[in-house]
Amino acid sequence: MIPALRPSYIQLLLALLLIGGITVPSTAMAQDVPAPAKDPASEDKIGFAAATVEYDSNSDIVTAKGDVFVDRDGYTLRADMVVWNRKSGEVTAEGNIRSVGPEGDVAYGDKISVNDSLKDGIVDNLLVVLADESRLAAHRGSRKDGIYKLDYAAYTACKVEGPDGCPKNPSWEVKAVKVIYDPATKRVKYEGARIELFGLPIVPLPFLSHPVDAKAGSGFLVPSVGFSRNNGLEVEQSYFWRISQNRDLTGAITAFSDAAPLGQVKFRSLEKTGAFQIAAYGTYSNRIDTSGAVVPAGNNVFRGYIEGSGKFQLNPNWSISASGRRASDRTFLRRYDISRDDRLRSTFAAERIDSDSYFSLSGWAVQTLRTGDRQGLAPIALPEIDYRRRINDPLFGGKFNIQANSLAIGRTAGQDTQRAFGSVKWDLRKLTGLGQEVTFTALARGDVYHSDENASTATVIYRGQSGWQARAIFAGAADIKWPFVGKALGGSQIFTPRVQLVAAPSVKNLKIPNEDSRAVELEDSNLFALNRFPGYDRFEDDYRITYGFDWALRKTSFTADVNIGQSYRLSNRASIFPDGTGLSDKASDFVGRSEFRFKDIIKLTHRFRLDKDNLAIRRNEVDATIGSRGTYVQAGYLKLNRNIGPTVEDLSDREEIRLAGRVRVARYWSVFGSTIIDLTDTTEDSTTLADGFDPIRHRLGVAYDDDCLSLSLTWRRDYQPTGDARRGNSFLFRLAFRNLGV
After folding, report:
1. Which positions make up the signal peptide (predicted)?
2. Hey, how many other C-beta atoms are within 10 angstroms of the C-beta on 490?
């Protein structure tokens, strides 16, 4: 028999509820805002169920058995048995204890005891599975004044069950004599902690702490260790500071055995309308002149680098963006392996975009890091204005595209150029009754240029004439495609012959400065373009016919795409294209592209250009990927034999090969490597010093990756010295733990 409901029985139910709260220490940490105020009347609303409930009046003990269930305010608790000793005030839950919090955290324990104050308690063999699936376990845990203390505890973010459902040991775990868990600060702090990797203790961490909710918290990050020919042994230690929910800052110090320490800081901010970030590096060290001088260019001078970027969407149409990069000298980035870029570009832009118009006000500047370039010849564009609008053609059903553009380029010690133009382009696409796709295009454009100090530009054909220059451009084109579809080789094929006619009267090209149309070459991507010069400063003025075909094969596991074409000029007008571009004669070279895919295992792309006279290979480019995500080989080969003289600086010939691969040797272990080799010799580039087999960079390493751990050791050898960025070997050891900072 059980006495009628009275306050003591309600206290028992409240005790059961508190047990549920004690076994879910992580739920308070997962909350970012205070819980809403509760109705006092709801404090007594408790869901409770059990197979049997017994009351011993002699000992004054209440016992609930058989799948005991307690539910209140989003907390649930299940146990085999709950015992309440009314004399001592002790409440105990035992057997298959499972508690779920509102945030989805699940806690398990063997035995839980709370005192009659319902505030402090003790848990044996506690296991908490957090919402992010990380785990915190302890032999014994206690709670006092809201703070949990766990004895002989362990933490890991690794899965303890494999894909086959069998138990597996975690790759890493943190073990400590004592763990203090404070829900108010949402952090776990350790005493006497160490990290065990594959069961072996590797790093003692006496001051370890980290957040246990899904959001990042402040703290030291895992250090990285490496070795380089430039700086010797290097150890980097970073600290992450979460300033607020939308801002953070990371600071790091890298110590070197052969160089002064390097400091770096990175700030990030996420605002309501956008985001931005700023990073800076700095150190004091000697700087070697990039010309190869023996005497240092700076003795213990400050060297550094700063970069930043950001974009803000002011409304659905308007946005502003900016990015900046600046280095103290030309070898700093390579010396400290921050970047291998040879130019640093800084930009800003204000843009407005809607369904039928586009406006941009932008600018950019370049810092050159090339050893042979003068900074004074690097361009500064301020401003560049571009406006475009699309209008439907009410007469023929086509579309008009109106564009207005202006650009001012200045140099501190070189040619200055200003440009403005306006254009109208009309396009009409029709399908005939025979299935032909016909596209008509008409273009009218007017340009105005002004330039000075033209003689400072080394390449004569880029200079143009000083002062004011104007020109008018008119062009028209008709493009016809006729696809044929049929069956082939167990699949379907599409064969599409294509012909294009272009007419453009003579244009004053060489009187105009050439700033943006220099790297021109015939290739498959621009074969049927109205203007095969990149940019606006040069326009292809001629009468020509271009012809070719596309062929595609589609099967269940295999696809093939092939195209090839040629262009023929219909007039005797002298070409403005430099020799070797494939467009300087009446008949152009043959260009094409082939791409083959077999499932997700093989992808092969081949681009080529063949000399029209003797079919000599002027461009041969191959990119291949073979394998799966875990094991694959990538190969790239490029040979440019365009027979262009050294006076055209943007079109030098070269030959190189690129190889990379990864082989999975076990479930989580893999070996990877890559290499770049310069195969250029003097027959391809008379200005080069390469001997036809000049390695650029080799890389080889071994890596381990699973759901919670990334581990790799990489060897790299650089063969191209630049200033104090010397050739030699580098080693990098990388160790990353998921959900853990040090």
Report:
1. 1-30
2. 9
| 481 within 8 A of 494, measured Cβ to Cβ | no
Q: Whose CA is closest to 522, among 618, 635, 425?
A: 618
Domain ranges of the chain: 47-220
Q: What is the pTM of this model?
A: 0.75
pLDDT for the residue numbered 101: 63
Give the pLDDT score at 132: 66
Beta-ladder partners of 215: none
Tokens, residue 159? 């899965």
Copy the structure tokens of residue 22: 């004690």
Assign 363 to helix, strand or coil.
strand
How would DSSP label each residue in 364-380?
Answer: EEEEE--TT--GGGS-E
CA atoms of 401 and 412, how far apart (whole Å): 36
Q: Tell which residue, 233, 338, 294, has the closest CA to residue 729.
A: 233
Q: What's the pLDDT tens digit per position in 389-399?
A: 999 988 888 89
CB-side neighbour CA atoms (13 Å) of 279: 12
Q: What is the dihedral of CA 16, 22, 25, 31, to 10 degrees?
A: 50
Is domain 47-220 annotated with CATH 1.20.1050.10?
Answer: no
As a whole number of angstroms, the distance between CA 726 and CA 719 comes to 8
User: CA 607, 611, 617, 619 torsion: positive or negative?
Assistant: negative
- Give 547-550 contacts, CB < 8 A, sequence gap 24+: 547/497, 547/498, 547/499, 547/500, 548/497, 548/498, 548/592, 549/495, 549/496, 549/497, 549/498, 550/494, 550/495, 550/496, 550/498
71-to-21, 77, 118 alpha-carbon distances in Å:
11, 7, 17
* CB neighbour list of residue 213: distance below 8 Å, 6 or more residues apart: 26, 29, 30, 130, 131, 132, 186
Cα 607 from Cα 501, distance rounded (Å): 24
Question: In 10 A of CB 413, how many CB atoms?
Answer: 11
Q: Which residues contact 196 (CB under 8 A, 6 or more apart)?
A: 172, 173, 174, 175, 202
Q: Taking the mean position of all CA atoms in its chain, how far away is CA 8?
A: 61
Pairing assessment for the beta strands 590-598 and 617-627 based on DSSP bridges: unpaired
Average of per-residue pLDDT values in the chain: 83
- Could you read off the pLDDT of 256-280 as tens digits, one per residue? 988 889 999 999 999 999 999 999 9
H-state helical runs in 513-593: none
The pair of structure tokens assigned to 331 is 């070898």
For 596-599, the CB contacts below 8 A with 24+ separation are: 596/558, 596/559, 596/560, 596/561, 597/558, 597/559, 597/560, 598/557, 598/558, 599/557, 599/558
Q: Shortest CA distance to 348 belongs to which of 363, 359, 333?
A: 363
Which residue is it, tokens 């853990």?
A: 740
Q: For position 161, what pLDDT does the model report?
A: 76
Strands (E), 261-415: 262-270, 274-288, 296-313, 318-327, 343-353, 357-368, 380-392, 399-410
Residue 63: its H or E element: strand 61-72
pLDDT at position 305: 96
* Alpha helices (H) along 156-315: none
pLDDT tens for residues 411-432? 999 999 999 999 999 999 999 9
Provide the pairing of β-strand 247-256 with 728-737: unpaired
Structure tokens at 334: 């390579």
First CA to last CA distance, the chain: 57
The one-letter code for the residue type at 181 is Y
- Name the band, by pLDDT with cuts 50, 70 and 90, for residue 299: low
Contacts with 306 (C-beta within 8 Å, 6 or more apart), sequence order: 278, 279, 280, 281, 324, 325, 326
Q: What is the DSSP letter of 157?
A: -
